[in-house]
Specification:
- The complex is a heterotrimer.
- Chain A is of the alpha/beta class.
- Chain A is built from 15 helices and nine strands.
- In chain A, helix 2 runs antiparallel to helix 3.
- The longest helix of chain A is centred in the N-terminal third of the chain and has 34 residues.
- The two termini of chain A are 28 Å apart.
- In chain A, 46% of the residues are buried.
- By secondary structure, chain B is α/β, with parallel strands linked by helices.
- Chain B has a domain of 133 residues: Rossmann fold, CATH 3.40.50.11890.
- In chain B, the strands form two sheets. In chain B, strands 2-1-3-4 form a four-stranded parallel β-sheet. Chain B has a four-stranded parallel β-sheet with strand order 6-5-7-8.
- In chain B, helix 6 crosses helix 12, helix 7 packs parallel to helix 9 and helix 10 packs parallel to helix 15.
- The longest helix of chain B is centred in the middle third of the chain and has 27 residues.
- Chain B starts with a helix and ends with a helix.
- Chain C is α/β, with parallel strands linked by helices.
- Chain C folds into two domains: 173 residues, Rossmann fold (3-Layer(aba) Sandwich), CATH 3.40.50.11890; 242 residues, Rossmann fold (3-Layer(aba) Sandwich).
- In chain C, helix 6 links the parallel strand 4 and strand 5.
- Chains in contact: A-B, A-C, B-C.
- The interface between B and C is large, with 59 and 54 residues.
Chain lengths: 450, 388, 438
């Protein structure tokens, strides 16, 4: 089947969206951007395609009524099992790379012990792997680097002690190896992993075994269906680094505007607060960008500002919003300068202000900056769509709602929990338009023939 | 009124970003008009002579949330134009019938044109002052500028401004400047009796009060504060320089004092002490105002120094006459004139072996700890140095 | 597809230039040499600013003429400014202030080695033409403070009301007659000869006429010139030490012939990578360029087929395209009018009118503002210009930020991102408009 893919290469994460000919979103994928944008794009795309496969599984199985009532549980299990298979594959790869790297690390006499320790460590990691993907298990991140890294670090110390090697030697090996593994793409093994996962699922859910054939058939047929990458459009900050021709690249402003329009067709104004920049976009009723403004050189008021605050407070980024929500008043914070934020914060604490009240002030300060950028772009019009990482922060959303009401009156505010995919969604829509609406493909072929 | 009452009133006027006192003054008599002016200097006599209230607009301070104003400025431009636009766009300056933008720097200059566009129904004038100090050249031009303002305001008032009107206003402002000089002299003599955080508020009240009332207020402050003894501390005596346009937050002034400095002279409200002595009420009033400007006015970064030898003379005079032991440069971030002037002033101070320290601020600076630290260290080093 | 085609017979392989450009390069190098050797040859050295420069007058006294702004931008182009700026900052200058000033002071700290590698003597006269920029005043005060040079202030009042009043003109004329000329006579030891001034001005007028014609060829589609990046070379002689110099007049005649020929042939602008063959976007630009990454910056435009048809920067040393010419019949008065009429001495409504007029007359797709950190005279309030121009023309505008000569302040990826977004937005709007018509 034909698919249209949008890839948004951001500074911290890379997102992909796969769309079918009827503009249904089949799947979404996300990965960390790493140092290698190429890999990031490939991995995100692959993740999205995997998600698309699951979407199609669900569709096919639901049509066949093979799992009446038990569909979601089955698909859920299958997905976890698939992640586990993928994880084990990467883990095996990591182990191999680590062992190779011990030689390069010049550990001298202790090299042998380090290898032994590694073997012990990886067998522990393999053992604990299924629990990581058990139903209800919580993972801080879905990126291999983070999951494997966390396990490696927590078990490494003990293993090092037992094996009589230095902990830092194990860390050294990990650091040398993770980038290599992280930047590898495992595209050839997806079908294999899916089938292996299916076996695990049957084992985990023996009650489904008696319908094995009825279940496996539609799954196999989806696996056999080729997902043709009909047209790919790349966007985002790193788009220039994508190995695409110019026609396949759109600015993130355009993609963001269109993506917001696709999610909420009545969108007139879009605000996106990401890690590195803040964008205010005005779109017309077709999702075409009319004007836009971005934060100036100064990164004040971007998501990164909250990152600094979190570091300063020794808190996790995701804990800031909930803390601010406990505030009983809003302390006025004047500096959204990332450099001064820490100093101002300590000043307020020294004056005896409560942490939550300061947090509320900080969230208001960051949103105030966004309000200025919005004003620059032409203000807020109905409807107003808020996207980006900061849109997930409830305190920021509350501050925004207050300020919008104070300055623009009643406006419908749209926030999609998956707004991180807005740019990729816009890009996928551009890809779809290029083929279906503009017949670009045909034109392309004509050109080539001529 | 006790000294606390006076200070409280001034603080109230300072914090009132809606300029209610101006609206009240206007409402007291139908047809009254008020004209805003920005730093550093305009001849308020002309506004006063037209029967209008000159209102000093010195930004929005640290209590104003700036949203719309920020939409007009890049991060590398100082804060005062943003907050001033915010005041305008939020209707807080509706009580003003016009705005004067004196020649001070490129930012305020450009703001004059922005004001013409944003507030089309208001009287807006860029008020140029000469950088040539010959009576026949710069003086002639300046008189022409003042005459243009006089004509405009006369038209706005519906009545020409006569020479007699001007002379009366000059006399009123001579008295006001005298009171300001008395206040500065008193503070230099007994800085513990007149802390700068209070003196600042008393002066700031002169931005919104009629000059006659302000003169009285200054004098009653001096009398009242003198009647209650306050503890004298072993502080270093410093001159503060560089805050002639964008104003530091009150908390910053307090921080400097708390850190162990007595500010014995400054350039906060330069408009009120710009002309160094009385303007003659004899002769042609505009000529007299011009002569005072050309030959007997303060020096500041926005004003050209004709000769190299002139650089820093005013600051040196402040240091010497007030018995100061050092200079604190407090410049607004991105203030081109002040920051470009600073190395030259430091050069002069070095030659005279006068110690100094320097930092930058914004009108909404929130972190005082580093400034307290720096001012404290400076005060300590002065005391050590003078003890040695 | 590439929008530029390399030209084969270019004189130098890496960089392609028009023939006239080589004459200009020689002029500039010769001038630097004249400055370097002025004191040996018994000449005095003057320094003055680009906006409001009294070049013909300085020529009357045979000054070797330095322009510190040009020195700074040359140092920027040659990637020498970064260190100079840091040296000046180490010497006590704030990171907040103008980097032209800091480049100049840094160059002096490094022993006054000029951009061409020849040492520059201290100026004997700092002619402080205070036109449209307060920083100029502090700049020469700083130079005077350090090097004891005689400084003469020529105060040009601002067009706050959008017009030149007789009092303003009289003020400038008087300063020239009573202060500037006597000082020049005293320092140079040469008597002022008004007929000599007239003679130089006759040269100026011819060159001014040709420059205007060159800049206005951009009204043609495709434009044979780039009115911003390319115009930097065209305005060079006129805005610096060569207005009134016969060689410069020749340069402008030659340039005009070349450019008009290109226009007749339907050719696009010449870029450092060759001729631009595809004109996709026509832009008006407000604000000075960045010099440290000048070529990279320009490339971002021509790679996309974007040509700048008009720019306000090309008027910074004199606004000639609305009829003003120096007047040999009234030489001093016309110098005053020239100073008063420079672009940065215009008020905001005038600047906005001018940009709207350019968008209309040059059939531009929109306005791009390059906001310069150093230059408050240009930059303060540009976001209002953006909004007003969008409102009045209905054309989209965009905003980027760089600096004149501070390499720390040029983020190529950032600028490219915004520029691309802007151009794609224009394209998308155009497609949508075309679809609506169809």
């Amino acid at each position: 089947m034909k698919t249209f893919i949008g890839i948004d290469l951001g500074s911290t994460t890379t997102k992909a969206v796969v769309m079918d000919e009827a503009r249904n979103v089949l799947g979404r994928g996300i990965t960390n951007s790493r140092s290698n944008y190429d890999t990031a794009a490939t991995v995100a795309k692959q993740e999205a395609i995997v998600a698309a496969r699951f979407h199609l599984f669900r569709e096919a199985l639901s049509k066949s009524h093979a799992l009446n009532g038990g569909l979601e549980a089955f698909i859920g299990q299958l997905e976890r099992d698939f992640r586990l298979e993928q994880y084990l594959e990467q883990l095996a790869d990591l182990e191999q790379v680590c062992e190779n790297n011990v030689q390069a690390a010049k550990f001298g006499d202790s090299a042998k012990e380090v290898v032994v320790a590694l073997q012990r460590l990886f067998s522990l990691l393999k053992e604990e792997a299924p629990t990581l993907f058990a139903p209800g298990a919580k993972r801080k991140s879905d990126f291999f680097r983070d999951i494997a890294g966390a396990g490696y670090l927590s078990a490494g110390e003990r293993v090092a002690k037992e094996a009589g090697v230095r902990y830092d030697q194990l860390l050294n090996v990990f650091d040398r190896s993770i980038i290599e593994v992280e930047n590898r793409v495992y595209s050839g093994t997806i079908s294999k992993n899916l089938l292996a996962a299916l076996e695990r699922t049957y084992a985990a859910m023996p009650e489904t075994l008696h319908r094995k054939e009825k279940i496996s058939l539609p799954i196999q047929s989806v696996i056999d269906t080729e997902l043709e990458e009909t047209y790919v459009v790349g966007t985002g900050y790193g788009r220039a680094r994508l190995p695409f021709s110019k026609e396949h690249i759109r600015s993130e402003i355009l993609c963001h505007g269109l993506g917001a329009h696709v999610m909420y067709p009545h969108t007139a104004t879009v605000l996106d607060i990401g890690g590195q920049d803040t964008k205010a976009i005005q779109v017309d009723k077709h999702g075409i960008v009319e004007s836009f403004q971005m934060n100036d050189r100064c990164a004040a008021g971007c998501g990164r500002y909250l990152g600094y605050i979190a570091d300063e407070m020794n808190m996790g980024l995701h804990e800031l919003g909930p803390l601010a929500m406990k505030a009983t008043k809003t302390v006025r914070i004047n500096s959204t300068c990332t450099v001064f934020a820490g100093a101002e914060l300590r000043d307020r604490l020294a004056l005896g202000e409560k942490r939550e009240d300061i947090m509320a002030g900080l969230h208001r300060a960051i949103v105030l900056r966004a309000m200025s950028i919005l004003a620059r772009s032409g203000g807020i019009r109905n409807e107003f769509t808020f996207t980006g990482g900061v849109a997930k922060n409830e305190a920021a959303v509350k501050a925004l709602m207050d300020l919008v009401r104070e300055n623009y009156g009643d406006v419908t505010l749209n926030i999609d929990p998956d707004s991180i995919y807005t740019g990729a969604l816009g890009a996928a829509t551009f890809a779809w338009r290029a083929v279906v609406e503009e017949g670009k493909e045909a034109e392309h072929k004509e050109k080539e023939a001529a | 009124m006790t000294v606390q009452d006076i200070v409280k009133r001034c603080e109230h006027l300072f914090e009132d970003l809606d300029f209610n006192v101006v609206s009240e003054w206007k409402a007291a008599q139908p047809g009254r008009k008020a004209i805003g002016y920005m730093p550093i200097y305009v001849p308020r006599e002309i506004v006063h002579a037209a029967g209008m209230l000159p209102v000093g607009i010195f930004g929005g301070g640290d209590q104003l949330e700036v949203i719309q104003g920020d939409a007009y400025y890049q991060s590398y431009i100082c804060r005062i134009p943003r907050s001033t636009i915010e005041l305008g766009l939020t209707g807080r300056l509706d009580c003003l019938d016009g705005m004067l933008f004196p020649s001070i720097c490129d930012v305020i200059r450009n703001l004059s044109g922005m004001w013409q566009i944003l507030f089309k129904d208001k009287y807006v004038k860029y008020f140029d002052v000469p950088q040539d100090y010959a009576d026949e050249v710069g003086g002639k031009f300046y008189i022409h500028e003042m005459q243009a303002l006089r004509t405009d305001l006369g038209r706005l008032a519906g009545k020409e401004i006569s020479d007699e009107d001007l002379k009366k206003s000059i006399a009123v402002y001579n008295e006001n400047r005298k009171a300001v000089r008395e206040l500065y002299a008193y503070r230099a003599q007994k800085p513990w009796q007149a802390p700068t955080s209070e003196v600042y508020l008393v002066l700031r009240a002169g931005c919104v009060l009629p000059p006659e009332e302000h003169t009285k207020l200054i004098r009653s402050y001096i009398a009242e504060t003198n009647s209650v003894e306050r503890p004298k501390r072993d502080n270093a005596r410093v001159v503060l320089n560089g805050s002639f346009c964008e104003q530091p937050p009150l908390g910053l002034i307090k921080s400097i004092e708390m850190a162990g400095c007595y500010v014995v002279d400054d350039d906060f409200q330069l408009c009120q002490s710009w002309l160094l002595d009385d303007v003659s009420v004899e002769g042609n009033p505009l000529e007299e105002l011009s002569k005072a400007f050309l030959h007997r006015s303060a020096q500041t970064a926005s004003k050209y120094d004709d000769k190299k030898e002139d650089k820093g003379k005013h600051l040196l005079r402040q240091v010497k006459s007030r018995g100061a032991e050092g200079v604190v440069f407090a410049m607004a971030s991105f203030c081109d004139p002040a920051l470009l002037e600073r190395p030259m002033l430091q050069d002069v101070l070095n030659k005279h072996k006068i110690p100094y320290t320097a930092f930058k601020f914004a009108e909404n600076t929130g972190q005082m700890a580093p400034i307290r630290e720096q001012a404290g260290t400076f005060a300590d080093s002065i005391k050590l140095w003078s003890a040695a | 597809m590439s929008t530029v085609t390399p030209i084969k017979d270019a004189k130098k392989k890496e960089v392609v230039k028009e023939d006239a450009m080589w004459i200009q390069k020689e002029l500039i190098n010769k001038n630097y040499h004249e400055i370097a050797t002025a004191h040996e040859t018994g000449r005095k050295v003057s320094a003055t600013f680009v906006p409001g420069n009294l070049n013909e007058l300085l020529m009357c006294f045979d000054f070797a003429r330095r322009l510190p702004e040009t020195d700074a931008l040359q140092n920027g182009l040659r990637k020498k400014s970064g260190k100079m700026i840091m040296d000046a900052e180490r010497d006590g200058h704030s990171e907040d202030v103008c980097t032209y000033v800091k480049t100049d002071l840094g160059m002096m700290l490094q022993g006054q080695m000029g951009p061409t590698g020849e040492p520059m003597p201290n100026p004997d006269l700092l002619l402080l033409s205070y036109t449209g920029c307060f920083t100029f005043m502090k700049w020469f005060e700083l130079v005077r403070q350090k090097y004891n040079c005689e400084t003469i202030m020529l105060h040009t009042p601002y067009q706050g009301d959008g017009k030149i009043s007789p009092a303003m003109r009289d003020y400038v004329v008087k300063q020239i007659k009573e202060k500037v000329i006597p000082a020049c006579e005293r320092i140079s030891g040469k008597k002022f000869d008004i007929d000599l001034l007239r003679q130089y001005m006759k040269e100026s007028v011819k060159a001014e006429e040709d420059l205007v014609r060159v800049l206005q060829t951009a009204k043609h589609r495709p434009s044979p010139i780039d009115g911003y990046f390319g115009a930097v070379y065209y305005i060079g002689p006129m805005f610096t030490a060569f207005r009134g110099v016969p060689e410069a007049t020749k340069f402008y005649r030659l340039l005009r012939e070349e450019v008009e020929q290109r226009m007749r042939e339907g050719k696009g602008p010449i870029t450092p990578d060759g001729e631009m063959t595809e004109e996709n976007y026509r832009l008006v630009v407000e604000g000075p360029p960045n010099w440290t990454s000048f070529r990279d910056f320009w490339k971002m435009f021509y790679e996309e087929g974007a040509v700048v048809v008009a720019s306000t920067y090309a008027k910074v040393g004199g606004v000639y395209d609305f009829g003003f010419r120096h007047d040999p019949e009234h030489p001093i008065e016309s110098l005053a009018d020239y100073c008063l009429g420079c672009y940065t001495n215009l008020n905001f409504p005038q600047r906005i009118d001018m940009i709207c007029k350019y968008i209309d007359e040059y059939q531009a797709d929109g306005l791009l503002i390059n906001s310069i950190k150093s230059c408050n005279s240009f930059s303060a309030g540009q976001l209002l210009i953006l909004r007003e121009v969008e409102k009045r023309t209905g054309k989209p505008a965009a905003f980027i930020e760089t600096d004149l000569v501070d390499p720390r302040y040029f983020s190529g990826a950032n600028v490219k991102n915004r520029l691309e977004s802007y151009l794609q937005m224009i394209k998308q709007k155009r497609t949508a408009a075309a679809a609506a018509v169809a």
